[in-house]
Amino acid sequence: MSKILILTGDAAETLEVFYPYHRLQEAGYEVHLGAPVKRKLQFVVHDFVDGFDTYTEKPGHTWDADVALADVDPADYVAIVIPGGRAPEYLRNNADAKRIVRHFFEHDLPVAATCHGPLLLAAAGVLDGRTSSAYPELAIDVETAGGVFEHGGGVVDGQLVTARAWPDNGTWMKAFLEVLDAAGAKPATAAA
Prior knowledge:
Blueprint: E1 3-7, H1 14-26, E2 30-35, E3 40-47, E4 56-64, E5 67-68, E6 79-82, H2 87-91, H3 95-106, E7 111-114, H4 118-123, E8 131-132, H5 139-144, E9 148-149, E10 155-157, E11 160-163, H6 169-182, H7 188-191
Domain DJ-1/PfpI: 3-178
Protein name: DJ-1/PfpI family protein
């Protein structure tokens, strides 16, 4: 059965967790949420309000993590997804999160990241020479990590698919599903 891991935690953007979670389930994959600790997570909603220079943040939905990152064997998964929000700000300091990310790049396996998700990629040292989108204010982080920033909603560089934020969810997941298919990742329904 093909499984995909979403690396996330508290203060992840609700739409950037739930859209890929449900879209990948719909496509037939078994999807797990991995977090620093296996417990109920509190997500947030980021929105754009007239008169603000940046987005605002409100409490979002809660959801249980399926597995603690320390317990993840990345070989059990065909791909990973890294949502944005503030979770990547602290996940980038988590040794297990970086271990998991490095595994997928070392084995040239599909990775999807959006919004602030590329902060974890940068910390794992896997953006050097890669083209990546991200929340536009993170262009400097992508470039500091040796990557090339591209302002786009479904940016594909090999097995890496990135986007700016939740307004790109449709183009981001469409491109990621195409990368999964090209990589030979088979959903659970296709494997049965």
